[in-house]
Amino acid sequence: METFPLPSVTEKETVVQNMFTSAARAYDINNTVLSFGLHHLWKKLTISLLEIREGHTVIDLCGGTADLSLLAAAKSGTTGHVLTMDLNFAMLRIGLDKVRSKQAPRQGQSPVVVVQSNAEFLSLKDSSVDRLVVGFGLRNVSHLDLALSEIFRVLKPGGRFACLEFSTPVNGVWRQLYRFYSFALLPSIGKVISGDRTGIYEYLPASIARFPDQESFCSMIRDAGFRDVTYRNLSGGIVAIHMGVR
Ligand SMILES: C[S@@+](CC[C@H](N)C(=O)[O-])C[C@H]1O[C@@H](n2cnc3c(N)ncnc32)[C@H](O)[C@@H]1O
Question: Does a structural domain hold residue 133?
């Protein structure tokens, strides 16, 4: 069923970035429609599992339109710091507007700072971060092993990492239904809502099918140096939250 030709590693960054630039304006609404609103619950649970405390420095890597950043900022309090780091200017622009409109009237949240940055080469000091979260981002980087080793490098010893990502549904029937939805229906709906011409909603299911399953991804996280690596399936394994401790 995997029909969309995925870009090679050398062209992946340019192709993927062009897709997100094209999809940015409709990204949030498409997320809500295509996941039937579930992405909000998945994101809330990810942040609650990350055990963010008052005063923590938190990175939302591949943070895009800053949903996870805003949830994290409510946990790390006025003495904490949240950085939304993403390569894509158009996605960050929308994230920044959202941060400005949602943060100003509220008290007790960490300021969210938006930074254009590549997950494979983070401009952060070693051992400088308490918590790092990535939502639906690592599937899109060109070199997953490089991004994981950067995440490990910037976390403090004892610091926690959580990755929310599409994964492999555990039940065979559920897996077939999900594949039908994601390959046959989702691209058309996504295209109608966003008017996209770059193929991002064909790339989405193809890139999910190519991403390591739950256990293989655990092994990669362990290989990057993390301990206590676990995962939790959500919605029958359509997505999984992987966690590790530096
Ligand atoms: C599917 S969006 C996820 C946005 C947000 N985290 C969320 O959960 O809604 C994936 C994001 O990863 C970003 N991205 C892809 N490759 C990246 C890289 N090498 N470094 C930083 N960000 C990257 C894209 O620009 C895009 O904003």
Answer: yes
